[in-house]
């Protein structure tokens, strides 16, 4: 709602910058989202209810693909290629759209359903959007998912060399699916409703991502679920008394998410269990906690009738809040009472017989023969709370932006503001939000049966803080860290509560389908548990199967600086593929810290090969004679072409290369499409473009993020080097004996880097760009792979509303844009002391090959979820990863201008002094040229000391030059191999 313009006293006008004081009212912060984003589904449902729009009378209509409007014949797949569908189907891909027309007699709410056949083996979800009569009815209709079903390639768990069970390969189930359009976050338990007017309506389904065959589109009246009482009346029969069917939960027949996986619980109460090996004996945990994830088990019963269902579960959610599952029999929820079945936190395993609030077991009717039981993760009971929290957070964001407009974003505590004169309703807003949070806190307390879970406490703390701020609203400009900024602000507390409420983890060991039979105990008795604890204690002294230890001389010893699940997968892939192909035995071990390599080398107990290490470490070991030159291998030239040439620079000394890139980072622009569209701000292509859009962003309290703000006191090369390289500057003189940061080009880059903070007012310090990006305060900025993973896996609320673009650069005289940026990832190196250098090189080539890197990356995500993204440095493999194609194109384009900082013995001093120059210019107001000149003196002094230490100088005189590696040098090796 537009606010009336207030009369602002002359004093305030003098204090507020003109471009803020006279901001255009139509672009007020509270209206930004409304210009591009529809209201939420819950909000629209309330509106429909208020105006009397209700569910339509029973209705069903199926629209065949041949009846889609204006569909080219070439997009229709013939009957003999329709995967068994009894009609022609539509090939839905590449952002294509289909439109159907439906004529209904009654205005009301309807549901939409689709027959579809997923294509492709990737795990990137198939996404679409739905428009009704030319517009999106609500925000959720912009993203509709069409999930695939998955199954294990084998029903038997194979074992690795240590006797531990291996998660089998997951494969998509190729069959036709039927789904009703649902909210993509699955926070609504029922399908989405769509308002159709009486008469003709058009429904448009647009492809956003993925590929599938589309069959019939269905328009149905809203479905209903009977009560338990009616369910019993509909199905005549008796309880089958003597039945007992036991199902091991770790073997579902199918699941709608590939990373719902069996896991090991090393607990003697679990079946099966072995003290000396890790068996995959339960399902769930963090792999089965996202709303909408479902797993299905086959049930065979010998006679028709009613059965009880018991689940052996462990609910140990750390916040102590209950979790929920929707229970379905043969694909449908049998009765309302099991639509949101809650599991309270328990310290031990429990046989949970599905029962009502009085403990009376529910009876489920099963037909003789084959039936299915599906359990679907369900966060819908807390959806109303999530909605209210989101409303409060949006309100806080709008209020914070309004205050920043008024104060020019000043938080000076010595400066007084009379905020209540310009925002007279600020106290009411704060108190209304506190009341809303109190109401939701009481609701959550009911769900948790009176237990004060972390989520309840978080809402109470946020409410108290809002009431405290309301007591002194004029002090809020200097207390924004309590309202909307910082790790302990109300916005951050509520953001964490949202994440906690959405998580619904549950471990499940067994499923019992039974009558009145007594169930096996869920937990071992006291004496049995005590005995097992003692035996496990003594067993713990045995060697960890993945610990670093001595190996036989004919085994390639590989230390990996990564978590267990990565190393296990690497070992299994090598055992199944590399060793059978080459006859070379390998053993992977977890290296807790890469610093162990330095100690191991000093003790002459180093491995043959190290993986997952920082790109600076091979150089430090090589210059001390501990690393092996990979150019000594005849086929090195065939291998180097797999990678970005600029990634090799920190691993080269003279003409020798001491490591291969294994993973690679990227720095690109992240931007919020919704906010930039609302402000009519283009995505910058150059730094000059960034400077041009900054005033419009800052007019609304928004800003542009650079990696400089992400660093604290010390500014690393990742933040500073791009400004130097893009301006054609350099860090070293030609013979390597000194620094060239005092050259005109380098100083130009450093000057602009500091101007961004001193003149253009970009943020000085941002502890977490991801959070600011999600909450819209920093809607655009330069960041890396870590941010990409966070936004992809942990920000579903803005999915589809952000994108990436190449790093901003500097326009050159020839019209090209110089975008040079760093991209340090991890590397792999062979030790000089290895007795198996040739075998280690074969392994390193195999590991970094396109086929293996693609297989490893895909398997990681299929097994462990979207957050396990693998940023391989192999360019061909990266192009085949299961990432959105448009994002891979941007990253690969940026990698064409990847330039890591070459290493010298004194590089660390250059990095430190550039950081010091930034601090002196920005905080002390020192002249840039003067600060750089002082830095050159310090660097050159350290240079002479280090070059004498490594034999390049003696008594201040040059003995031999130090060759600074270049991209052209690496490219020449590739060209030599091609010739």
Automatic annotation (TrEMBL):
Region forming the signal peptide: 1-23
Keywords on record: Signal
Gene3D superfamilies to which the protein is assigned, alphabetical: Galactose-binding domain-like, Periplasmic binding protein-like II
Keyword Signal on entry: yes
Keyword Signal listed: yes
Coiled-coil spans in chain: none
Protein name as annotated: ABC-type glycerol-3-phosphate transport system substrate-binding protein
Organism: Sutcliffiella tianshenii
Organism ancestry: Bacteria, Bacillati, Bacillota, Bacilli, Bacillales
């Amino acid at each position: 709602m537009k606010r009336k313009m207030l009369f602002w006293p002359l004093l305030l006008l003098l204090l507020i910058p003109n471009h803020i004081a006279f901001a255009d009212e139509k672009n007020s912060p509270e209206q930004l989202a409304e210009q591009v984003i529809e209201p939420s589904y819950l909000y629209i449902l309330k509106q429909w209810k208020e105006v009397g729009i209700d569910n339509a009378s029973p209705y069903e209509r199926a629209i065949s693909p041949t009846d889609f409007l204006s569909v080219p014949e070439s997009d229709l797949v013939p009957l003999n290629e329709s995967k068994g569908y009894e009609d022609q189907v539509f090939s839905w891909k590449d952002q294509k759209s289909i439109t159907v027309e439906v004529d209904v007699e009654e205005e009301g709410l309807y549901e939409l359903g689709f027959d579809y056949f997923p294509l492709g083996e990737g795990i990137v979800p198939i996404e679409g959007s739905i428009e009704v009569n030319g517009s999106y009815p609500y925000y959720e209709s912009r993203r509709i998912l069409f999930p695939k079903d998955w199954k294990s390639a084998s029903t038997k768990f194979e074992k690795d060399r240590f006797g531990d069970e291996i998660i089998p390969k997951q494969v998509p189930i190729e069959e036709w699916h039927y789904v009703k359009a649902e909210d993509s976050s699955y926070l609504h338990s029922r399908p989405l409703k769509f308002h159709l007017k009486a008469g003709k309506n058009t429904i448009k389904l647009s492809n956003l991502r993925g590929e599938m065959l589309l069959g019939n589109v269905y328009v149905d009246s809203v479905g209903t679920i009977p009560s338990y009482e009616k369910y019993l009346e509909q199905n005549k029969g008796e309880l089958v008394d003597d039945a007992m069917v036991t199902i091991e939960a770790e073997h579902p027949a199918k699941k709608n998410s590939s990373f719902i996986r069996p896991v090991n619980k090393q607990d003697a109460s679990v079946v099966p269990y072995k003290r000396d090996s890790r068996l995959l004996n339960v399902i769930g945990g963090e792999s089965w906690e996202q709303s909408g994830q479902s797993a299905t088990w086959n049930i065979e019963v010998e006679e028709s009738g009613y059965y009880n269902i018991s689940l052996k579960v462990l609910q140990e959610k750390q916040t102590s809040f209950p979790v929920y599952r929707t229970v379905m029999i043969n694909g449908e929820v049998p009765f309302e009472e099991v639509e949101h079945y809650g599991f309270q936190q328990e310290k031990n395993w429990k046989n949970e017989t599905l029962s009502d609030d009085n403990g009376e077991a529910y009876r489920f009717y099963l037909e003789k023969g084959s039936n299915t039981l599906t359990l679907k993760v369900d966060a819908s009971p807390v959806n109303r709370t999530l909605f209210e929290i989101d409303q409060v957070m949006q309100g806080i964001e709008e209020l914070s932006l309004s205050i920043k407009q008024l104060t020019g974003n000043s938080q000076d505590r010595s400066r007084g503001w009379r905020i209540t004169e310009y925002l007279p309703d600020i106290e009411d807003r704060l108190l209304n939000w506190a009341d809303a949070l109190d109401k939701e806190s009481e609701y959550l307390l009911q769900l948790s049966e009176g237990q004060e879970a972390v989520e309840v406490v978080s809402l109470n703390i946020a409410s108290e803080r809002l009431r405290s701020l309301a007591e002194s609203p004029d002090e809020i400009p200097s207390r924004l860290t309590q309202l909307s900024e910082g790790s302990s602000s109300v916005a951050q507390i509520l953001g964490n509560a949202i994440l906690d409420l959405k998580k619904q983890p549950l471990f499940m060991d067994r499923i019992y389908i039974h009558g009145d039979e007594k169930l096996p105990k869920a937990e071992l008795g006291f004496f049995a548990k005590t005995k097992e604890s003692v035996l496990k204690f003594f067993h713990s002294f045995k060697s960890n199967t993945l610990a670093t230890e001595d190996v036989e001389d004919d085994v390639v010893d590989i230390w990996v600086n990564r978590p267990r699940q990565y190393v296990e997968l690497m070992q299994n892939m090598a055992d199944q593929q590399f060793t059978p192909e080459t006859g070379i035995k390998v053993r992977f071990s977890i290296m807790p810290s890469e610093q162990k390599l330095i100690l191991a080398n000093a003790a002459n107990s180093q491995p043959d090969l190290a993986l997952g290490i920082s790109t600076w470490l091979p150089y430090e070991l090589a210059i001390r004679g501990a690393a092996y030159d990979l150019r000594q291998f005849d086929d090195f030239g065939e291998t180097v072409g797999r990678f970005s040439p600029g990634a090799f620079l920190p691993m080269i000394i003279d003409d020798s290369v001491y490591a291969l890139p294994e993973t690679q980072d990227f720095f690109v622009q992240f931007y919020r499409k919704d906010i930039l569209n609302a402000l009519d701000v283009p995505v910058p292509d150059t730094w000059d473009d960034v400077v041009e859009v900054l005033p419009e962003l800052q007019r609304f309290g928004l800003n542009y993020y650079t990696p400089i703000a992400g660093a604290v006191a010390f500014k690393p090369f990742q933040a500073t080097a791009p400004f130097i390289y893009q301006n054609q500057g350099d860090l070293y003189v030609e013979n390597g004996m000194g620094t060239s940061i005092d050259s005109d080009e380098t100083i130009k880059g450093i000057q602009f880097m500091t101007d961004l903070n001193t003149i253009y007012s970009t943020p000085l310090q941002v502890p977490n760009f991801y959070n600011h990006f999600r909450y819209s305060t920093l809607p655009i900025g330069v960041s890396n792979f870590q941010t990409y993973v966070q936004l992809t896996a942990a920000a579903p609320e803005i999915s589809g509303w952000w994108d990436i673009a190449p790093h901003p650069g500097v326009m050159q005289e020839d019209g090209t844009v110089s975008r040079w940026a760093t991209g340090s990832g991890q590397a792999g190196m062979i030790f000089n002391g290895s007795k198996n250098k040739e075998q280690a090189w074969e392994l390193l080539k195999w590991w970094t090959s396109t086929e293996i890197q693609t297989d490893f990356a895909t398997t990681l995500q299929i097994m462990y979820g979207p957050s396990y993204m693998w940023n391989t440095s192999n360019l061909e493999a990266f192009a085949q990863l299961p990432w959105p194609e448009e994002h891979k194109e941007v990253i690969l384009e940026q990698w064409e201008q990847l330039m890591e900082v070459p290493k010298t013995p004194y590089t660390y001093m250059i990095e430190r002094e550039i950081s010091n120059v930034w601090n002196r210019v920005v905080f002390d107001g020192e002249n840039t040229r003067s600060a750089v000149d002082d830095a050159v003196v310090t660097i050159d002094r350290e240079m002479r000391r280090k070059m004498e230490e490594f034999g390049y100088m003696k008594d201040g005189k040059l003995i031999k030059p130090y060759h600074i590696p270049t991209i052209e040098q690496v490219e020449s090796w590739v060209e030599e191999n091609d010739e």
